Amino acid sequence: MIYTNRRNFVKRSSLGITGSLLLPSIGFAMPSGEKYGVQLYTFRNEMAKDPKGTLEQIAALGIKKIESARSKAGLYYGLSPNEMKNTCDSLGMQLCSGHVALDKDFDDTMRQAVESGQEYVICSSLPSKGQNIGNYKKVAEAFNKAGKACKKLGLKFGYHNHEYEFESDKGEVLYDVLMDNTDPDLVHMELDLGWVVVAGKDPLYYFKKYPGRFPLWHLKDMNMHEKISTEFGKGGLDIATLLQHKSDSGIKHIFIEQEEYASTPMESMKHNMKFLKAL
After folding, report:
1. Neighbours of 200 (CB within 10 A)
2. Is-above-0.85 flag for pTM?
3. pLDDT in tens, 184-193
4. Which CATH superfamily is domain 37-278 in?
């Protein structure tokens, strides 16, 4: 199993950073040459207040890849798809992916994704409820259909897991049902490693069972006691071992995500980048 027991940690706060905060260009260079990305939900409050200024601060940390997340202000925090693309380009970052909903507005979601230049559109939650095999087969069918529609436009459709997909029904793990009933050429999985270990599963098992099916990762360390995210090295995720086996998963993009923080999102990300450099 890929997690270990750790001591309890102090309660996390979600204190924000101000848009006017000036950060030096740290520019962490990863020994492996890996260009790490970030899921912008990590900076959700900051992006809502000042998307361009926050992206500048993220770029100063050496982050090279971006995955957006839909918000009350739209898919790109109030920016148009073209504005989001141009802002990332100007900062030397690549907008690779975005979290979206598979809903009645999915045609417009795809249109915006094409305009933004991103490669992946990732469904961030199940489009229909029901923790049973029947619903997961229904969802798989909807995912295959969405995958076909995306492929016609030059996009790649995928799904991001949480903890609940690893529950079982009639002796079958529901995530496995989803994997077994989706076309690998149409549905590209984004594996949230933190939620996998919280569910009591081993990511390496899934790399072996479904080789090459996970081109996207959410690299997220977890406080196993409180089941909340934490800074790298403070939780139960064996990051070093997972990175050693990343090729087994078919990895193309690694997005760091953190939802709770010891102080601020920016300080947590600085810690995480230093941790990865030390590996």
Report:
1. 11
2. yes
3. 999 999 999 9
4. Divalent-metal-dependent TIM barrel enzymes (3.20.20.150)
